[in-house]
Amino acid sequence: MTSHSNPLEGQKSPYLLQHAHNPVNWYPWSDQAFKKAADEGKPIFLSIGYATCHWCHVMEKESFENDEVAAILNKSFISIKVDREERPDIDNVYMSVCQALTGTGGWPLTIIMTPDKKPFFAATYIPRESRFGMTGLLEILPKLADLWKNKKDDVLSSAEKVSAALKGNSDKTFAADIGEGLCNKAADEISSEFDKKDGGFGNAPKFPSAHRLLFLIRQARVSGDKEILRQVEFTLDKMRAGGIHDQLGGGFHRYSTDAKWLLPHFEKMLYDQAMLVMAYVEAYQNSGKEEYVDTARDAIVYVMRDMTSKEGAFYSAEDADSEGEEGKFYVWKYDEVFSALEKDEALVAVRYFNVDDQGNYTDPIHGGSMNNILHLGNSHDKLAGEFDKTVPEMKSMILRIRSKMLDHRSERTRPLRDTKILADWNGLMIAAIAKFAGAVNSESHLNAATRAADFILEKMRYGKGGGLYHRYIDGELAVEGQLDDYAFMIWGLLELYEAGSDEKYLSAAMELDKVLSDSFHDVAKGAYFMTSEKHENLIFRPKVNFDGALPSGNSVQMMNLLRLSALTGNPAYEEKAFKILKSVAELVNRYPGSFTNYLSALLYSENSTEVVVVGKKDDPEAAKFAETLRKTYQPFMTLISVPAGNKKAGILKIAEFAKDYKQVDGKTTIYVCRKHKCSQPVTDIEEALKMIEK
């Protein structure tokens, strides 16, 4: 391959920069590229991926670095590269195309389309040459070029029909009344897929799906179903012990390729850390099991150590590959453990992490290896007995072992880190760290969440009180904010307010909600579009209903609106929330297990409890009351802190209903409200907790 530069040079996206020296003459998604295609009468070859995508790397190495493939693309097509994380709207639209035309989806995503963006061919990964029943690019591209040249009218007609059908699908309405017992039905549906042996729900590959676990914990809280709770905890136990969990550095890999949670796809995504931190925190609050809060803490340590910018915001992801091999950074050979540790430590380490001299897994591509994926199987108690130590001594030794092995691992070539700062994923991480801070009363974690939120609010907005940008890299802002940016940031700001009682974050959440309401809201149908009314026109304006790998922006916004209603006393927020649910009710009634975050919001609405703590500013008793309430598992509680005797307090401008709440006998006083009815004020925290539990 000869040295080459293309129009991707100078872009900020790490993914686009990976392709800036391919012989393919790539363009970024731009007016320039579409004008060139129209002027030259060529179809567009659109390739969508992301920087840490393993199969994107494979397709680049096989095809996009190949001069023969490049020659065909450069002669007969205008080639466009898109970072799906930078432009989720484009990805959503053309992934819908791929799923409609092929029945499958994934990345890299390959689309051939007309210069006016209308698709007529879709695929995911394509090998360079035909093999294993897959037609290769060297065979596909000439055929498509020939079709475009000799049967262009047929191609244009087909593209027009595909685009019209997809636009028709996007305009469909699914409004209906909410069915009875949906939360029970969803829990039963998910529970029926429970893997009794290895935990999780369904077969391999297994994804953590943290929002489903959160729904199940909350549903068990309401229903008292101990079996569902057991299934969730068994799953959390298996995940934290498995290879999907980075046993040294903390945090979780993307998913497990096998049923046992042993062999992961090794990339690490910021959003997975955020969602799993929240799942482990709520499991800890509900059960009191310290291992859950330890797992959450370790994931946050990983993010703070390896995924945080100097400004305090959070990076997007780390690749699965290093030195051309997936997982190379994370796996260990038996002898390497002994070279990293003292002999007595190594003997414990190989037992604790299940390290075998022949390797402990089979690589699905390369077959057997001498490598080991660290995972747990022997308890501290068991190992203490084996090595004639006390349990505290064994715990201390394992902490030392982990630290030494982590130091040893850090000398290896690290996978690529994608340094995009995305508003939506940062919102999730802010929510997770704030939730953790409240659960364990950690000021340092609250400060970390605050610092990240301040960065987004100060550096990634159009102006004071204005809308969000989606992406920030090295001082450059790009891409107008989309639904997830607003919904996830509002979530983070609400968690931050409840964890620290600083009303400026509640005010910021309300400002962002107003932008959503003004520019994204489908007033006629009730839900929110993915993009604003001023956004670039694609072949249709996308709207995401289903909860997928992440909860949908619409389901998160439903929960946000319910919480804003509880915090402000304004019923208009609640009305909007139920219009979102009603807009997808036909689908929810049919497939409740695919809408678990909506159902978490429904559980919240049915069990919502507003708790107002009135106490003097800087009164340690008031702080202690709020701390106690945050630590307990109250997933449907909204906590409002009101400074006594200060009628001009900022929170009273937002939550005007709290103006009438006073201290009793000069003591810190708690008001518990449900369904717009409030109990008599109490000054005893235990009594307040009993009232909340009713």
Q: Which residues form runs of ≥5 with pLDDT under 50?
A: none
User: What average pLDDT do the residues reach?
Assistant: 95
CATH topology of the domain at 14-170: Glutaredoxin
Secondary-structure-based class equals alpha+beta
Shape: globular
The biggest sheet amounts to:
5 strands, mixed
Radius of gyration: 26 Å
Helix content: 40-55%
- CATH superfamily heading of the domain at 14-170: Glutaredoxin
Distance between the termini: 70 Å
The CATH architecture of the domain at 14-170 comes to 3-Layer(aba) Sandwich
CATH top level assignment of the domain at 14-170: Alpha Beta
Strand order of the largest sheet: 1-3-2-4-5
Proportion of beta-strand residues:
5-15%
Tally of alpha and pi helices: 27
Beta strands, count: 23
Write the layout of secondary structure elements.
Elements: H1 14-18, E1 27-28, H2 31-40, E2 44-49, H3 54-64, H4 67-76, E3 78-83, H5 88-102, E4 109-113, E5 119-123, H6 137-150, H7 152-170, H8 182-191, H9 210-223, H10 226-241, E6 255-256, E7 264-265, E8 268-269, H11 270-287, H12 290-306, E9 317-318, E10 321-322, E11 325-326, E12 332-333, H13 334-340, H14 343-352, E13 362-363, E14 367-368, E15 371-372, H15 380-386, H16 391-409, E16 417-418, E17 421-422, H17 423-440, H18 443-459, E18 469-473, E19 476-480, H19 483-500, H20 503-519, H21 553-568, H22 571-583, H23 585-590, H24 596-607, E20 609-615, H25 620-631, E21 637-643, H26 650-654, E22 669-674, E23 677-678, H27 685-693
Parallel strand pairs: 1-3, 2-3, 20-21
Antiparallel strand pairs: 2-4, 4-5, 6-7, 8-9, 9-16, 10-11, 12-15, 13-14, 17-18, 18-19, 20-22, 22-23
Helix pairs in contact: 4-6, 8-9, 9-10, 9-11, 9-24, 11-12, 11-17, 13-14, 15-16, 17-18, 17-19, 18-19, 19-20, 19-21, 21-22, 21-24
